Amino acid sequence: MAKTVGDFVVERLHAWGVRKIFGYPGDGINGVFGALNRADGKIEFIQARHEEMAAFMASAYAKFTGELGVCIATSGPGASHLITGLYDARLDHMPVLAITGQQSRNAMGGHYQQEVDLPSLYKDVAGAFVEQASTAPQVRHLIDRAIRIALGERRVTAIILPNDLQDAPYQDPPRIHGTLHSGIGFAKPKTVPYEADLRRAADVLNSGEKVALLVGAGALHATDEVIAVADRLGAGAAKALLGKAALPDDLPWVTGSIGMLGTKPSWELMTECDTLLMIGSGFPYSEFLPKEGKARGVQIDIAPDMLSLRYPMEVNLVGDAAETLRVLLPMLKQKSDRKWRDGIAKNVAAWWKVLEARAKEPAEPVNPQRVTWELSPRLPDRVIVTSDSGSCANWFARDLKMRRGMMASLSGGLASMGAAVPYAIAAKFSHPDRPVVALVGDGAMQMNNMAELITVAKYWRQWSDHRWIVCVFNNEDLNQVTWEQRVMEGDPKFNASQQIPNVPYHKYAELIGLKGLYVDRPDALGSAWEQAFAADRPVVLEVKTDPEVPPLPPHITFAEAKHLSESLIKGDPHEGGMIKETARQVIASLVPGK
Ligand SMILES: Cc1ncc(C[n+]2csc(CCOP(=O)(O)OP(=O)(O)O)c2C)c(N)n1
Ligand SMILES: [Mg+2]
Question: Which of 175, 341, 470, 527 is at a distance of 20 to 30 A from 2, taking alpha carbons?
Answer without folding.
Answer: 175
